[in-house]
Target: Purple acid phosphatase
Amino acid sequence: MLTGAKFSFKMGPVRAAWALLSLAPLFVLGVPPIWTQPEQVHLSYPGEPGSMLVTWTTFNKTESKVEYGLLGGRLFEMTATGDATLFVDSGEEKRKMFIHRVTLTGLKAASTYVYHCGSNDGWSDVFFFTALNDSTRFSPRFALYGDLGNENPQSLARLQKETQLSMYDAILHIGDFAYDMHEDNARIGDEFMRQVESIAAYVPYMTCPGNHEATYNFSNYRNRFSMPGKTESLWYSWNLGSAHIISLSTEVYFYLQFGLELLFKQYEWLRKDLEEANKPENRAVRPWIITMGHRPMYCSDDDQDDCTTFDSYVRRGRNDTKPTAPGLEDLFYRYGVDVELWAHEHTYERLWPVYGDKVFNGSKEQPYVNPKAPVHIITGSAGCREKTDRFNPNPKEWSAFRSTDYGYTRMHVVNSTHLYLEQVSDDQYGKVIDSIWVVKEKHGYSSWF
Ligand SMILES: *[C@@H]1O[C@H](CO)[C@@H](O)[C@H](O)[C@H]1NC(C)=O
Ligand SMILES: *[C@@H]1O[C@H](CO)[C@@H](O)[C@H](O)[C@H]1NC(C)=O
Ligand SMILES: *[C@@H]1O[C@H](CO)[C@@H](O)[C@H](O)[C@H]1NC(C)=O
Ligand SMILES: *[C@@H]1O[C@H](CO)[C@@H](O)[C@H](O)[C@H]1NC(C)=O
Ligand SMILES: *[C@@H]1O[C@H](CO)[C@@H](O)[C@H](O)[C@H]1NC(C)=O
Ligand SMILES: *[C@@H]1O[C@H](CO)[C@@H](O)[C@H](O)[C@H]1NC(C)=O
Ligand SMILES: [Fe+2]
Model:
């Protein structure tokens, strides 16, 4: 009897499956999705104290609402509304989606909020975030990396857990997403944004564009992210703790077909932003100036990338354009940029303080104590389908530490004089394989001498 019961129990699903198969043409795509269901939820910091921006996607037009409240308080006590923009991908199918943006304001610094987003036609899962502490004495912690894809995203699991454990106040993704967001009529972009929701819905996910975003003039990148400023997330700056963080597009040096004027616009904006950040009253409270851009000025990988050449476009500019285009090294040096974060090379490399291809250690014993030039970190090994890159066996004297392990970087801006960086290896189960303290009693151009 027992076996008989088991048998007939087993037959049920089998018969059901046959019944389904006979209707196969109707069912191969499964049940149609709910086009009004919010997905791909992610946060960014608009740059105004007490604010947070929630961005998400639906495939049909709906209202854009975030319902939120303090952790431990009444759920969804408050409502904020925003709007949606229609994004039509440029692939063959011309897929349409609505990108919703809602800015929360008046948040209490350092308080944790619980939220969901959507409309009465569909709500997301419930997430939480901590409003950024806007004190200049606050010591923010970051995870940062570039070159993270849908396939082989080696660092993602550890980043998910650490982010959900509140180890980071913000994440910096230094270009190259998904590989590539536009592929399969932008379904690869959708899938990437779904995959990173597990981190990006909990802390501000701050980005800059990389070469893998270039298709259709960076339209997937420009439409899906919501960075501060009015440049469609291409270049912008923001402040956290004692740091002024500048995000830029190195791609303006390479994709001239999208407009040489973008290169000059960005350069002019960078100059103005750096000038403002260097006003004595500003630099006094936010002494650290940190830049992030996708393609490095220097690297010792064995590919033929821009950073392997002495005449790197990013570093030295281009003289084959009219007018000729200035590079970024002199600009950043002149305005006393402290730390420059890069990716693109699928490796990790730390440089001794460097300017003009020469090393300017603080001292031989303590190269990062009062360094006489900016400190460069290249961290593009978060994991993607292109695997990791290789190093050239004879690096120049500015190369201090190199690793081909998958991984990412942690940065802690401790106070006005101390900044800590460490490299996590995913190949070695989260082991910290490199770390430095950058210590500066003085910041700005005059600190180089
Ligand atoms: C809802 O979205 C789907 C997928 O983009 C589309 O096929 C359908 O026409 C849309 N319906 C409405 C009412 O907009
Ligand atoms: C923000 O950080 C500062 C410096 O650590 C701290 O003194 C202050 O209490 C924090 N603010 C809040 C609201 O927790
Ligand atoms: C590419 O996009 C940028 C940013 O929106 C825009 O300024 C530029 O004109 C576009 N280039 C072309 C060729 O459409
Ligand atoms: C232009 O730049 C290239 C390297 O990118 C360099 O070899 C060449 O000498 C430069 N030409 C002039 C006229 O400066
Ligand atoms: C910079 O400092 C490091 C670490 O002490 C040392 O190995 C290297 O030779 C120094 N480089 C120069 C050019 O002084
Ligand atoms: C800054 O932080 C470092 C490292 O924790 C500490 O040794 C130093 O005393 C701090 N400086 C100030 C001014 O608080
Ligand atoms: Fe890249």
Notes: The chain has two domains: 39-130, 141-448. The radius of gyration is 24 Å. The chain is about 20% helix and 30% strand. Residues 109-110, 133, 135, 137-138 surround 2-acetamido-2-deoxy-beta-D-glucopyranose (ligand 2) (CB under 6 Å).
